[in-house]
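Incident review: delayed structure delivery

Summary: a single-chain prediction request sat in the queue longer than the usual turnaround. Root cause was a stuck worker, restarted by the on-call engineer. No data loss occurred. The affected request and its eventual output are reproduced below so the record is complete for anyone auditing the incident later.

Affected input:
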Amino acid sequence: MRGEAQPLERRKRMRILIQRVKKASVTVEGELISLINKGLLVFVGICDEDTNEDIEWLTKKIANIRLFDDEHGVMNLSVTDVGGDVLAVSQFTLMASTKKGNRPSYIKAAKPDVSVPLYEQFCSELEIALNSPIKRGIFGADMKVELLNDGPVTIFIDSKNRE
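Output delivered after worker restart:
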C-alpha cells in the first residue's frame, strides 16, 4: 500500500510527547549525558512514512507552543520566550499499537536506518526553529530519563492528526 493514500486514522505518523519540566536529565550506563533546567522534555517517535513536512511542522509547533505562564499565571509563553532549555529523546515506544492483545506492537516504529537520520534531522530543525542548541539523548541506548514535570503539563502531538 506504500504510495497509496490511506484514511487519516490509518496512516503512520511522527508522534511527539512534550513535558514542561523544572529539570530533566538522561543517563546512560551511569554517565550523565544531558541535563536541562526549566524547559521542555520532548520524546520523539518516528515511523517509516515520516517526511520533512512532518519534521518542519512539529519543530515549529514545539518552538512556538505556549506552555509557560505569563505574569498573570496564564500559559501564554513559549520555551523561547522564557529562555528555557529543550531535551529531545528518541522513544520508539510512542509508536506502540495496543489494538490487539496485551503486548504492545511496535511494528509502526521505523528501523534505525530510517529513524536515526530523521531523529538527527528533527533535532537540527528544532535547533533552527528555536535559534538555540538543544540537548539530546543517545539514540538506541538504554537511557534513564529523570524529570520533574512542572504542572504537570504534558502534551501529545501527532503529525498526521493536526488538532
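Verification: Helices lie at 52-64, 112-130.
Action items: add queue-age alerting; document worker restart procedure.
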